[in-house]
Amino acid sequence: MTLLEALKWGRAALAGGESPDIDAQLLLMQAAKVSRTTLLAFGERPLAPQAQAQFEGYIARRQNGEPVAHILGEQEFYGLALEVNPHTLIPRPDTETLVDLALALPEAPLRFLDLGTGTGAIAIAISHHRPAWQGVAVDAIAEAAALAGRNVQRHQAKVEVCQGSWFMPVRGQRFGLIVSNPPYIDPVDPHLGQGDVRFEPLSALIAEEAGLADLRYLVEQAPAYLESPGWLMLEHGYDQGAAVRQLMSERGFELVRSERDLGGQERVTLGQWQDK
After folding, report:
1. Residue 120 in marked binding region
2. Is 183 labelled a binding residue?
3. N or C, where is the chain less crowded by C-beta within 10 Å?
4. Homologous superfamily of 75-273 in CATH?
5. H/E run at residue 258
6. Is 106 marked within a binding site?
């Protein structure tokens, strides 16, 4: 079997899925240890039997619904390759909106806090583009904190990783920016039984109060940990923008607004805090 023949077989095997072409490409590149350029330009090259067997195994796992990122063991986010595993959410392009907003702040050095960091994606991306900033990334799950630590080391990011629930590891500290992609899905949302989320930890996905409980907690608690002025930026569900804006405004945040993701959905709400 050549590379091109293997690619065609993989596409056909995954037909009907969300992205059979790109999935087959990524899995074949991993199994054959070739670049996309080699795969597309030199498709007549033979595929070694061991690589073919591995590719077939990857395709079988994908047919069972396992996320490509889990099969590969990594996912790209904001141009950075990150290790992933089933203990955390897989970084998604929509979350890059949050990084964009953080990087739109003045470049003067500041300390920032990433709560519920998971893979460390947000903190690492911010640190990569703002090397003068100092970051702290927190996650309650030991395996997630360890994973974030490995990704921080991989990219030599100026980020300290701590294990603990929300603000507990940073009591008494203040930051110029707090960011978070917290759980925000309603526990009864039917999408929890579909796609990649079936393989991701529910603790990183769902929140009570129709998905607003953790967002509400962060809005209530953040002022005690923000410098004056300081910014809070929260990712949320496509239909939660109005509710999060209301929470921030009622808490006393100023300049509150929501920004849309690549799909045009309200995805991040931010507000500025100033001590009264």
Report:
1. yes
2. yes
3. C
4. Vaccinia Virus protein VP39 (3.40.50.150)
5. strand 254-260
6. no
HEC readout, 151-209: HHHHHCCCEEEEECCCCHHHCCCCEEEEEECCCCECCCCHHHHCHHHHHCCHHHCECCC
Of the pLDDT bands very low, low, confident and very high (cuts 50, 70, 90), residue 193 is low
pLDDT, averaged across the chain: 94
Which is more confidently placed, 193 or 268?
Answer: 268
State the DSSP string of 103-145. HTS--S--EEEEES-TTSHHHHHHHHH-TT-EEEEEESSHHHH
Using CA atoms in the order 247, 166, 137, 119, what is the torsion angle rounded to 10 degrees? -90
211 is in an annotated binding site: no
List, by residue range, all CATH 1.10.8 domains of the chain.
Answer: 3-64
Distance CA 19, CA 91 (A): 17
Q: Is 231 annotated as a binding residue?
A: no
Tell me the mean pLDDT in the region 136-147: 96
Residue type, 1: M
Q: Is the confidence at residue 76, as pLDDT, over 70?
A: yes
Contacts of 122 (CB under 8 A, 6+ apart): 95, 98, 99, 102, 114, 179, 181
pLDDT of residue 210: 83
Q: Give pLDDT tens digits for 248-264.
A: 999 999 999 999 998 99
**CATH 3.40.50.150 boundaries in the chain:** 75-273
State the pLDDT at residue 232. Answer: 98
User: Is 117 known as a binding-site position?
Assistant: yes
pLDDT at 68: 94
Residue 237 is labelled as binding a ligand: no
Of the candidates 237, 201, 203, 207, the residue with the CA atom closest to the CA atom of residue 87: 201
pLDDT given for residue 192 in this prediction: 72
Q: Specify whether domain 3-64 bears CATH 1.25.40.
A: no
Residue 257 is predicted with a pLDDT of 98
